[in-house]
Specification:
Blueprint: H1 11-22, H2 28-35, H3 39-52, H4 65-96
Length: 97
């Protein structure tokens, strides 16, 4: 039984591949056969590039600006909730005294 190895493609490769499709120099089916990449994957890359242009394909561990802002706000929210909980406990301790 052979294991399938997941291939990882960098941003530059994906952009160059999509540009070949968009410039009409290669058809998706033709590129799919040449590169050994599923045609559905190539269509997904093309759609993502058309929506996000150069911001597409951020890579593993990299986030789009919107995702980064969301992550930052969620972290700030957690900190504020912890501070609020500490203040509630302190109020309870001091009000008993």
């Amino acid at each position: 039984m052979s294991k399938q190895v997941k291939r990882v493609f960098d941003k530059e490769f994906k952009i160059n591949t999509v540009r070949l499709i968009l410039n009409k120099s290669k058809k998706v089916a033709e590129l799919s056969r040449e590169l050994g990449i599923n045609a559905n994957t190539l269509h997904a890359w093309k759609n993502q590039y058309e929506q996000e242009q150069e911001a597409s394909f951020p890579g593993k561990g990299h986030q789009t600006p919107i995702e980064e802002e969301l992550r930052k706000l969620q972290k700030e929210n957690r900190v504020l909730q912890e501070e609020r909980d500490i203040l509630k406990k302190a109020l309870g301790i001091f009000s008993k005294a």
